[in-house]
Amino acid sequence: MANTSTLSREDRKKSKRAARKKRKAEKPQKPREYARGSQKRKVKKLARGQSKR
């Protein structure tokens, strides 16, 4: 992306949004074969009762 430091805040937002949109059109992501979050590590619940020190 071009240098946007000289642009105003609104113009910068427009420029970045356009760049994101362009990138999405050029390199679309393939759909995933698994449900979101299904491959996250599962955390075992700690023992209840007296707090661990």
Question: What does the secondary structure layout of this molecule look like, with pairings?
Answer:
Layout: H1 9-26
Strand content: under 5%
Q: What would you report as the Rg, rounded to the nearest angstrom? A: 22 Å
Order of helices and strands: H
What is the helix fraction of residues, given as a range? 25-40%
Terminal CA distance: 50 Å
Overall number of strands: 0
Describe the structure.
- With 53 residues, this protein is mostly helical.
- It is built from one helix and no strands.
- The protein has one helix at residues 9-26.
- The protein starts with 8 loop residues before the first helix and ends in a 27-residue tail after the last helix.
- The mean pLDDT is 85.
